């Protein structure tokens, strides 16, 4: 398959001014009539019109009402010698029920849905399927009225009525021009929760959430999240809802989380449906951020869209930043805000940092791709959001808001590039550091890899100075051997012996900062000298993770314990605890003869102090007490033996469980919630800490051969009034390996056999269970034979196969290579059904070259087996080819 190069961009040879689509919906044969008004782009030399199409049956092509000659060039329909302005009519048919790729028009649970981003519209009709072609759309849907009573598309409903033969129609007109990737239609038997709102600007709007009947009682939280999103975007960025009607529709067959189609968002049910009985606190919180994310795309993505798919982070990085800020603002307290930041950083470090160090590493603005679907990555999304966050750090919150306002003044209604965004933020802040640094700052878009910032501090008692010297380095990534220095904002503070922030004054400067100061690194190596420091301070560097980098500082245990106890920045307080744990874990992992129980009294006492702390929030305590994940630990090593990593981490957990047993008991008792269930930050933090206490108490009980806490966990499982408590209790049992887990799992299935999203949890929990005697893989295979399993449903396939391959390192990385064999078979099997799902699973072995032998050789062979298969989709082929390069 050939790679598309960013450098090859050229403007479209034709513009599409309007599109009039008419659908006769039928699962076997849907007829699509596409009437377009076309206009030649007279800025370019005359060129033929080339329209993209995929898996379509072409019946007729008319130009200005007359039959026309055309030719096919691969998947493109080519029309030459067209008048400069013309009306083109294309009539095609497709078979939605056979569409297992879930791109274009497909059937799910007897309803029709579409997914057009990135290149799905070409599976609906022939079109200039690129985001810089923006047109006005009108859409007529016709279908059997009894089977498909609800007919939806983008914009406003302008007409509807009955047709003969039991059919009916609806006509929708979108008042905004849009790229075709934002087109959507939905048809089926759906019910709707509706809410009318009046915004700050005094405009009335109708918000609707469509689901299958029976699910309506699970839409309240999504509706509240939507109402909050509308209000937040107006208040924070002055961006109002620009539609009379805003609709969300949920489907259980969806490749990703959700899709921001103009006025008609389509969501994976996982990010819409929630009730206290079926959804955990984490589900509630994910729904809030995904609803927000898709809603915020209405401006950042839809009103201003991407010129080409290389600019994907223009909308995704910015919109993730916006949804992170939304959830942070909604979280409320300073502590809850910090918890949200820590959670976001954990995602970045455990997913994006490894991507940046692996074979799929790519810049935030990639230079080439084979299949664009493979580039909906954590780099584009999460690292892209960190890049946006750094603008805010450099120009301040008010400056950033001015930048966003200028961005919309300049580019509303257009398809633009990341350069346009950068320029708007810089131009709106002429007196900030940004304009002069902008060309260098933009290296964040062009250079892949995670920079490593090394810092050293020297205290000089005689001159009462403390000098911090920073050096930055970014390792080579595929296709990029040499990297130039990045612009790195470093927010820091210096702690005195009592743990208070020192006033900060840089040598030669008048300004004194209380608390934190923002430095900006631009060179490979740079020093900063703080004056008036009369005793050696403890530096708290990169507060809030002010840049997406790895910080190397040779902290002593005493310094880390000081930061953990006192840092005014809660992020770095948490970070100090993580560093203490990482140091202990990596020392034990690297010395295979060492006792895997790597925790010493100093660490355990520090954790006890956190658990007992009178004022720290439960959610924060839970984060501090959570050991770094196996994936994160593996990233800190040069060579990874996944079994050793697991053994050491597990031994550390058991130590924490046993040594802190009395404190876990106190914590469990202190975190019992009595009032009505609400998924707010404070109550969910309490439930999380309570679940953690129960997990440790069950672990300790099993280690000590005592059944008391497993019995309590079983009772809690049975009596729980919400899914968070119920699932935490079940997980505590399963994770401890206690025999009571078996009846509890059976009961859980019986209780929730009709709740697909809960069954996904049931499957995932079992395949991520401890691998006792190599039993996980046989269990996975058994679960795949369960009557509730289906490979065609992405959520279910991911809950079993991806959870096993990506979230159970010890069960997956087997000495006999059976995990890898299973992985290669499933990748191939899935590739024939749904290449996007297969290609994501294919990435489970991205980090194969870091593995110790024999894992390394076995993993490579498994990847090679997949790569050798003929007829592979370009999605999977790109992933495995890069992995082997
Ligand atoms: N912008 C949406 C992307 C998306 C997508 C991409 C490829 C294949 C299927 C897809 N479904 C949704 C999601 C978002 O970032 O909001
Ligand atoms: Zn998005």
TrEMBL record:
Domain Peptidase M1 membrane alanine aminopeptidase stretches: 222-431
Top-rank taxon, per record: Bacteria
Domain Peptidase M1 alanyl aminopeptidase Ig-like fold stretches: 449-553
Matching InterPro entries: Aminopeptidase_N-like_N, Aminopeptidase_N-like_N_sf, PepN_Ig-like_sf, Peptidase_M1, Peptidase_M1_dom, Peptidase_M1_pepN, Peptidase_M1_pepN_C, Peptidase_M1_pepN_C_sf
Cofactor(s) this protein cannot do without: Zn(2+)
Keywords: Aminopeptidase, Hydrolase, Metal-binding, Metalloprotease, Protease, Zinc
SUPFAM superfamilies recorded: Leukotriene A4 hydrolase N-terminal domain (SSF63737), Metalloproteases ('zincins'), catalytic domain (SSF55486)
Any one GO BP annotation for this protein: proteolysis
Keyword Protease carried by entry: yes
E.C. number: 3.4.11.2
GO molecular function, one term: alanyl aminopeptidase activity
Pfam families: DUF3458 (PF11940), DUF3458_C (PF17432), Peptidase_M1 (PF01433), Peptidase_M1_N (PF17900)
Aminopeptidase N-like N-terminal domain ranges (all copies): 83-182
Catalyzed reactions: Release of an N-terminal amino acid, Xaa-|-Yaa- from a peptide, amide or arylamide. Xaa is preferably Ala, but may be most amino acids including Pro (slow action). When a terminal hydrophobic residue is followed by a prolyl residue, the two may be released as an intact Xaa-Pro dipeptide
Gene3D superfamilies: 2.60.40.1840, 3.30.2010.30, Neutral Protease Domain 2 (1.10.390.10), Peptidase M1, alanyl aminopeptidase, C-terminal domain (1.25.50.10), tricorn interacting facor f3 domain (2.60.40.1730)
Reported function: Aminopeptidase N is involved in the degradation of intracellular peptides generated by protein breakdown during normal growth as well as in response to nutrient starvation.
Family, similarity comment: Belongs to the peptidase M1 family.
Protein name, as recorded: Aminopeptidase N
Top-level taxonomy: Bacteria, Pseudomonadati, Pseudomonadota, Betaproteobacteria, Burkholderiales
């Amino acid at each position: 398959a050939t790679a598309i190069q960013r450098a090859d961009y050229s403007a479209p040879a034709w513009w599409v001014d309007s599109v009039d689509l008419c659908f006769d919906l039928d699962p076997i044969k849907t007829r699509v009539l596409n009437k377009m008004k076309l206009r030649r782009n007279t800025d370019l030399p005359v060129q033929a019109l080339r329209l993209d199409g995929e898996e379509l049956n072409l019946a007729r092509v008319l130009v200005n009402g007359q039959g026309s000659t055309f030719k096919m060039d691969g998947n493109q329909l080519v029309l030459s010698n067209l008048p400069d302005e013309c009306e083109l009519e294309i009539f095609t048919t497709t078979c939605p029920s056979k569409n297992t790729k879930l791109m274009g028009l497909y059937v799910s649970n007897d309803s029709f849905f579409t997914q057009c981003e990135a290149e799905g519209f070409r599976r609906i009709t022939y079109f200039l399927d690129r985001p810089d072609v923006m047109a006005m759309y009108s859409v007529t849907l016709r279908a059997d009225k009894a089977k498909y009573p609800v007919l939806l598309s983008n914009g406003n409903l302008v007409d509807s009525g009955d047709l003969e033969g039991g059919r009916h129609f609806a006509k929708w007109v979108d008042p905004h021009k849009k790229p075709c990737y934002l087109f959507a239609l939905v048809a089926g038997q759906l019910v709707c929760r509706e809410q009318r709102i009046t915004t700050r600007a005094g405009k009335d709007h109708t918000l609707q959430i469509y689901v299958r009947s029976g699910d309506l009682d699970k839409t309240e939280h999504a509706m509240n999240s939507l109402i909050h999103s509308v209000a937040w975007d107006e208040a924070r960025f002055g961006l109002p809802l620009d539609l009379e009607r805003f609709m969300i529709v949920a489907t259980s067959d969806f490749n990703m989380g959700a899709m921001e189609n103009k006025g008609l968002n389509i969501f994976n049910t996982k990010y819409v449906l929630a009730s206290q009985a079926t959804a955990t606190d984490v589900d509630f919180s994910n729904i809030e951020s995904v609803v927000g994310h898709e809603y915020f795309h209405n401006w950042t993505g839809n009103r201003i869209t991407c010129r080409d798919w290389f600019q994907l982070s223009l909308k995704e990085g910015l919109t993730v930043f916006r949804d992170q800020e939304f959830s942070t603002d909604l979280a409320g307290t300073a502590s809850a805000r910090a918890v949200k930041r820590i959670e976001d950083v954990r995602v970045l470090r455990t997913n994006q940092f490894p991507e940046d160090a692996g074979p799929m590493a790519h810049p935030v603005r990639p230079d080439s791709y084979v299949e664009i679907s493979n580039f909906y990555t954590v780099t584009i999304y999460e690292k892209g959001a960190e890049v946006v966050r750094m603008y805010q750090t450099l120009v301040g919150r008010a400056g950033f808001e001015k930048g966003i306002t200028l961005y919309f003044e300049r580019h509303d209604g257009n398809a633009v590039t990341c350069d346009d965004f950068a320029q708007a933020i810089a131009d709106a802040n002429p007196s900030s550091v940004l304009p002069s640094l902008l060309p260098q700052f933009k290296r964040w878009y062009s250079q892949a890899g995670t920079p490593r910032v090394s810092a050293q501090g020297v205290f000089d008692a005689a001159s009462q100075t403390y000098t911090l010297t920073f050096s930055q380095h970014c390792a080579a990534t595929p296709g990029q051997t040499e990297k130039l220095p990045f612009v790195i904002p470093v927010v820091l503070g210096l702690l005195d012996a009592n743990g208070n922030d020192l006033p900060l004054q840089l040598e030669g400067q008048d300004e004194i900062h209380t608390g934190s100061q923002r430095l900006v690194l631009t060179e490979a190596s740079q020093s900063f000298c703080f004056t008036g420091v009369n005793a050696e301070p403890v530096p708290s560097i990169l507060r809030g993770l002010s840049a997406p980098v790895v910080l190397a500082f040779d902290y002593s245990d005493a310094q880390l314990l000081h930061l953990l106890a006192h840092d005014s920045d809660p992020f770095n307080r948490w970070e100090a605890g993580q560093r203490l744990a990482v140091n202990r874990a990596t020392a034990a992992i690297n010395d295979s003869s060492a006792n895997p129980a790597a925790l010493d009294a100093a660490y355990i006492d520090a954790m006890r102090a956190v658990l007992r702390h009178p004022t720290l929030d439960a959610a924060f305590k839970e984060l501090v007490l959570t050991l770094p994940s196996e994936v994160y630990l593996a990233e800190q090593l040069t060579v990874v033996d996944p079994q050793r990593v697991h053994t050491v981490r597990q031994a550390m957990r058991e130590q924490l469980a046993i040594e802190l047993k009395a404190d876990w008991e106190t914590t469990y008792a202190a975190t019992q919630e009595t009032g009505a269930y609400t998924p707010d930050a404070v109550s969910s933090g309490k439930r999380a800490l309570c679940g953690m206490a129960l997990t440790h108490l069950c672990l300790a009980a099993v280690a000590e051969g005592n059944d008391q806490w497993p019995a309590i966990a079983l009772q809690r499982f049975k009596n729980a009034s919400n899914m968070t408590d119920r699932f935490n209790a079940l997980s505590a049992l399963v994770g401890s390996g206690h025999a009571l887990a078996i009846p509890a799992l059976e009961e859980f299935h019986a209780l929730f056999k009709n709740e697909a999203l809960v069954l996904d949890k049931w499957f995932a929990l079992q395949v991520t269970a401890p691998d006792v005697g190599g039993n996980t893989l046989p269990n996975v295979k058994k679960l795949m034979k369960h009557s509730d399993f289906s490979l065609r449903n992405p959520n279910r396939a991911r809950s079993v196969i991806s959870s096993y391959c990506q979230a159970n390192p010890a069960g997956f990385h087997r000495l006999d290579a059976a995990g890898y064999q299973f992985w290669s078979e499933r990748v191939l099997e899935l590739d024939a059904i749904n290449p996007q799902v297969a290609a994501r699973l294919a990435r489970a072995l991205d980090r194969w070259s870091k593995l110790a032998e024999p894992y390394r050789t076995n993993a490579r062979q498994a990847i090679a087996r997949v790569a050798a298969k003929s007829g592979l989709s370009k999605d999977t082929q790109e992933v495995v080819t890069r992995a082997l390069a």
